[in-house]
Amino acid sequence: NDVIEIDAASNNGVEEIRDIRDKAKYAPTQADYKVYIIDEVHMLSTGAFNALLKTLEEPPTNVIFILATTEPHKIPATIISRTQKFDFKRIKPQDILSRMEYILDQKKVAYDDKALKLIAKAAEGGMRDALSILDQAMSYGDNQITYENALLVTGSVTNELLTTYMQQVVAKDTKSALITIQKILDEGKDASRFIEDLTSYCQDILLYQQDPGIVEEMELGVIDDQFKELSQKITDQEIYQMISELNAISNSLRYTANPDVYLEVLTVKITHLEQPKSTSSAPAAVHSTNQQAPSPETTVEIQQLTQEVDRLKAEVESLKQQAGSTVETPAVSEPAKASAPALDTHIELAKIYPILGQATRKQLNQFKEIWPDLMNALSVTQRAVMHVSSPVAASEGGVIVAFEYPFVYQKAQGDSDLKDALENNLDRIVGKVPQIVFVPENQWPEIRHDYLANHRNQLKGKKAGSNDADPKPDSTDDADERPADDAETQPVVKKAEELFGKDILDIKND
Q1: Is residue 469 helix, strand or coil?
Q2: Which structural domains are found in the chain, ordered by start?
Q3: Terminus-to-terminus CA distance in the chain, angstroms?
């Protein structure tokens, strides 16, 4: 065999590497090259790396070494300097599907198209996983691949059950939806797997609503009449809320021994989601109101309310006049502001603050100019994720991207392939790779406010220290005579202008 795979986690000694070095000099028997794949290469010992170094310096012409690792920072610099770096991406579901069809056609094995699509989706970009699932499904089906056996091997829920469940959720039929959940659990389906399938189903509906061609191009799901009808009945806002609930339940399922309870709670929650307010129904309501004359009782109530409003207006005006004539008015305590939501602990403030410290409006405008080109360079699924994002701050060495929806932010934050694609395309477009940091849009104002507050406190601390060292007795009198325009020269105001622009900045003196 001309392709040799070695697990460095269990073969990490010098002797194993010497054995590879001795055998590498022999020519391949069938292929043009002999390929050595060393998996988890960072697990090799120092002596093993040294033994491999000589072979990498003067490799045989017919040998290729593939050093696979998920932790490249642990590989010695002497090895990295003698190799080329390639990022292995997940294989597209279409390519996995085509390869499985080719294999089964060569072996003359009957198969169901729906079964292969399900396996390609369950493999999550791994061809080896797809072929392993295919072998198991074939062993269950007496040398044929059926949809039922694919469901059995992957533990997935049928599209029919998912569609039925979603129809019941949209119809607010809690009782029927709970019965469907119980049926799924009685079949032995894993709760976490059901959540994954349901999230993927919601994603398919959302993408289909944006552009039907996206789902058809990706070949992710089965698009039937029920699917199309369901996509017309449910709004995108409802799908966003459902995916947020599914994401929260998915995290909770990891630490529970009673998943059925969480699924039942989830079902009750999403069947009672509030409908998003629509302004389109307002004209119709006004029109129907105008068609019907008010009753005498209603007229009397309206008159009473009008009189009450006039009385309150007069009272407010008199209070204003009294307040204006009073020389000294007691300080009115401002109502307590509603506390902003706590920052997500996953937000990387240690990376955000240095970017804000060097950020300028010019850099942000430059990123906004190249943003459409950057989006066009991404794949279909990556564009769907980044569709609800935009750059909000940028410096020479980094850019901060805000996501409109928290669950999309969480998905992007955990997608290393997405960040790699953004960095590679930025390198191609602008010739450099700035640091990319994601934040949720609803928490961006608080992050920005906290940064400016910290920056202002630091400046005040420095100023206080200089005043202590060189006290000035008349500083109070000078402060009273200082014009208000000096606020524009303060460092924190200048920094805010650099970050957000002078046109949207409102300076208020304390």
Answers
A1: helix
A2: 3-80 (3.40.50.300), 93-154 (1.10.8.60), 159-271 (1.20.272.10), 345-467+485-510 (3.30.300.180)
A3: 78
Sign of CA dihedral 354, 356, 357, 360: positive
Return the CA Rg of the chain. Answer: 32
Phi-psi region of 379 (alpha: psi -120 to 50; beta: other; left: phi over 0): beta
**pLDDT tens, residue by residue, 42-68:** 988 888 888 888 888 888 888 999 999
> Among residues 424, 376, 352, which one has the least CA distance to residue 87?
424
Q: β-strands 144-145, 389-394: how paired?
A: unpaired
With the C-alpha atoms ordered 222, 226, 228, 234, is the resulting torsion angle positive or negative?
Answer: negative
Residue 455 has what pLDDT?
78
CA distance 421 to 428: 11
188-195: average pLDDT? 85
The Cα 197–Cα 161 span in angstroms is 11
**Residues 252-274, mean pLDDT to the nearest whole number:** 83
Cα–Cα distance measured from residue 352 to residue 436, given in angstroms and rounded to the nearest whole number:
9
Give how far the C-alpha of residue 157 lies from the chain's centroid of Cα atoms, to the nearest Å.
25
Those residues whose C-beta lies under 8 Å from the C-beta of residue 292, and which sit 6 or more positions away, are none
pLDDT tens for each residue of 103-146: 999 988 888 888 888 888 888 888 888 999 898 888 877 778 88
List the one residue out of 402, 360, 320 whose CA is nearest residue 496.
360
Alpha-carbon distance 6 to 265, whole Å? Answer: 47
> What's the mean pLDDT in 459-464?
64
What's the pLDDT tens digit per position in 483-497? 444 444 456 566 666
Does 96 have pLDDT greater than 70?
A: yes
Structure tokens at 35: 């390929």
Q: Are 42 and 11 in contact (CB under 8 A)?
A: no
- Edge-first strand order for the sheet with 34-39 is 3-7, 34-39, 63-67
What's phi and psi for 329, nearest 5 deg? -110, 140
CA distance 503 to 226: 51
Best CA proximity match to 440, nearest among 339, 338, 343, 337: 343
Nearest to 245 by CA among 219, 277, 268: 268
Evaluate whether 42 touches 75 at the Cβ level (below 8 Å): yes
d(CA 424, CA 419): 9
Candidates 9, 61, 74; CA nearest to 33 is 61
Structural tokens at position 218: 């990706």
